[in-house]
């Protein structure tokens, strides 16, 4: 009986160990080749796009920076899947990362279409999804609570650009842009504190080292956003991490989601703070004067609702006009402001007699629309519905140049011909 008791006791111990092992394997962590536990992070990017390549490299750098030093941080394995720009492949990759690899977080997804597909699965699985798509609707984060938009909205930047255009009185501008901003100097001009942040983490040097095959191995906005997203995950995990009891502390995606949404740090793209699941838009933008290919001269700052200022401090003085910031070197290095309303005003003041000539044909049978009569003093009296609409429209325009109606003999067709022939 004594031998049987020992056998039963040994059997119970083995059974207990197996049950404990299975429970640990289901806690979302895995083991590497050295039988060491690690936490799996998932990422889905498009390897065929410049943005996807940048995001992949930036995420790997961030994992090394924030998870590679032990201490109070867990051991993390980053698993990156290629979406190939295909929604079906994206859905399959997300399912594999969550179900097979027990990914605690999903990052990436550069389009709203991809984000929407994965958001449903992530929400059901209670896995935080940090999307890097710029066009995520604000209501989406309410519909899928585990969806976090980690890409900064470009709307605030557009307001800064609009303020500059308004300041110089330009009526028309040519917008030259790229879907991927690959010049870090230009990126620094539209995102606050970027140059300082790049220098602090040595990100640009490391990015070039790991991104050598591209013609322009410089970090763009997509890589910066991806780096910040991984940093937010690292901070959330480090706040809830205990090496002995990590399975209990990180057992729910809700805890990790809460930690991510409580992020508050100075990222490569500016202050990294979430509001209602969306990355808070930047309030301050640095303005730089780009001269040539690489030279950037600091001009000042633009702050929403305050305007332009030379610096950012408690004693800063603000002005609604960018002229307050001083001289700007324009393309071709002229000192005068190019084009726009200012040029029109200068032209009008120097040639006060010049005005727009609005041709009105006299050969018109529908006088209720346009009626041309000569006054006794020789001046022209032009009336009718079309003229009333024209005058009302002009009143709505700011600083429209002076104009006068000119009598033109003939039909509308002959008037158009004179325009083509540039007849004065």
Automatic annotation (TrEMBL):
Signal peptide location: 1-23
Pfam families, A to Z: ANF_receptor
Keyword field: Membrane, Signal, Transmembrane, Transmembrane helix
Gene Ontology cellular-component annotations: membrane
Receptor ligand binding region domain segment(s): 56-224
SUPFAM superfamilies linked to this entry: Periplasmic binding protein-like I
InterPro entries the UniProt entry points to: ANF_lig-bd_rcpt, Ionotropic_Glu_rcpt, Peripla_BP_I
Transmembrane segments: none
Chief localisation class: membrane
Record localization: Membrane
Name of the molecule in the record: Receptor ligand binding region domain-containing protein
Species whose genome carries this gene: Acer saccharum (Sugar maple)
